[in-house]
Q: What sequence folds into this?
């Protein structure tokens, strides 16, 4: 089952208050803030220090219409799967995804990425634009990657420049290099 088949895409802003919960996970690329609803994992935030976490939680409370719940089962699944991924034991995420924090072109591109670019492979910005039927939209694909609410799980780190460079990355280029090295696309850093 593909990610796009797991969770239907709701219209942004169409739902009232929603149950959600969050946690912070220490990883080899730094702390990640994870937020999930009853539909699935909704957000992954890089560099989740206290300031970044406070800002993300304020936005999530506004988006989901209230404070977090004590627990959401999908959060435990996401923590377990990300822990296994960073240990080199998981190559494909199965945690359900809540796509409600993205829509339109960005959502189409992110679905194509999640469904069509497996662990250990990369795709060019233009190739991904072509896959969603938008020839010439390589820059827009880059913008979609920058707005990805589910990095690592929806692997925007696997999108690279056509000139052989690794392209940009919202989590920072060093984070992108580390993720690509973990997946065997780049050599592991020497130090």
A:
């Amino acid at each position: 089952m593909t990610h796009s088949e797991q969770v239907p895409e709701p219209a942004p802003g169409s739902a009232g208050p929603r149950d959600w919960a969050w946690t912070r996970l220490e990883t080899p690329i730094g702390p990640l803030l994870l937020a999930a609803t009853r539909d699935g994992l909704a957000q992954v935030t890089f560099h989740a220090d206290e300031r970044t976490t406070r800002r993300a939680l304020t936005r999530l409370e506004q988006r989901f219409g209230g404070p977090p719940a004590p627990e959401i089962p999908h959060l435990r699944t996401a923590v377990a799967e990300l822990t296994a991924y960073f240990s080199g034991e998981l190559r494909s995420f199965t945690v359900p995804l809540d796509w409600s924090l993205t829509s339109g072109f960005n959502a189409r591109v992110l679905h194509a990425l999640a469904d069509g670019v497996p662990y250990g492979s990369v795709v060019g910005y233009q190739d991904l634009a072509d896959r969603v039927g938008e020839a010439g939209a390589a820059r827009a694909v880059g913008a979609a990657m920058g707005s990805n609410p589910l990095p690592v799980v929806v692997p925007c780190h696997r999108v690279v420049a056509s000139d052989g460079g690794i392209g940009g990355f919202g989590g920072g280029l060093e984070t992108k290099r580390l993720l690509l090295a973990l997946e065997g696309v780049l050599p592991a850093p020497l130090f």
In short: The first helix runs from residue 3 to 6. The chain has seven helices and five strands.
